[in-house]
Amino acid sequence: RQACPGRVIMPGAGSSTLRLMPRSPGGPMAAARRLRGRNPAVGHQPLTTCSRKRSTAAKCPAQSGARQPRSLSSCAARIALPSALIAKTAATGADLVVGYAGGLVPEKGIDIVLRAAALCNECLSDRLSPANSACHVVIAGEGSEQPNLEQLAEAVGLVGCVTFAGRIGSTEMPAFYNAIDVLVLPSRTTSTWKEQFGRVLIEAMACSVPVIGSDSGEIPNVIGDAGWIFPQGDAPALAGCLAQLARNPNLRTELGDRGRQRVLARYTHRQIALAIYNVYQQVLDAERSHALELDV
Asked: DSSP readout, 132-172?
């Protein structure tokens, strides 16, 4: 398992199943030229459902020194259609399009993504023009937290750097994944809940999209060594991950390829069926051994 740079997180392993949709090269810019809709790459039936207070000069988590926030002009955007979403993310000029998909509720930790993106933008502001940003965040989903998230985006200086895409249909999710450069699942454990699996991680990895997750629940086990893990609630740690990916497209490609290989090895229908079969086989073998002992 790879933790976010400078962080050490415990190992694990996990499994599930999902749609397999390869990601075309070129990221959102190439996607703007053509809405990608490839067939699954393997022969299995796809599924149908497929904080700390920020100062005006927050210290960059990935390098020494502080950066002043840049001036951004437009308001947080709302958008519905994946084709329009792809075109919009390509037009932002951001180095890194950061995606989240799921419910907009407190335990999902979307506020951590916004704080981390703001820190990353400050960290890399010296290498960008005032019209561009290092990170543009695309949030797919609905929930009670959206008004609070919109206010937070404005408060941390992400005006114009966040797109609230609303609820996206399952058949359109491959287009969403192809519109982003990295998927983040920043769940935070509560007294009554922790992340049980994180299906969006598998879907993103199937599309060769790098994934970053918190250490809540099963997230580290699902990602394995195919992505990065950060301590839940740690916005500076997540910002460090985003900054590295924003500066290094080759690293994004490497992590994306690693994630897709993990999906093919563990999460296809065939692999899940085989794992279940092996469990039953072990139970039957144990029963037979027990029966033989009784006969003796």
From this structure: --SEEEEEE---TTHHHHHHHHHHTT-TTSEEEEE---GGG
Q: What is the torsional sign of CA 69, 73, 76, 82?
A: negative
List the one residue out of 183, 208, 164, 157 whose CA is nearest residue 38.
208
Cα(190)–Cα(186) distance, rounded to whole angstroms? 13
Pull the structure tokens for residue 274: 């085989």
CA dist 241 and 4 (Å) reads 6
Can you tell me the distance from the alpha carbon of 61 to that of 233, in angstroms, rounded to the nearest whole number? 14
- In this predicted model, what pLDDT tens digit does every residue of 63-77 receive, in sequence order? 433 333 322 223 344
Q: 113: which 2 tokens? A: 């993504």
All residues at 6 or more sequence positions from 196 whose CB lies less than 8 Å from its CB, including other chains: 217, 218
The position carrying tokens 């502001």 is 125
Write the DSSP string, 224-285: TTSSEEE-TT-HHHHHHHHHHHHH-HHHHHHHHHHHHHHHHHHTSHHHHHHHHHHHHHHHHH
For 137-189, the pLDDT digits (tens) are 999 999 999 999 999 999 999 998 999 999 999 889 998 999 999 999 999 99
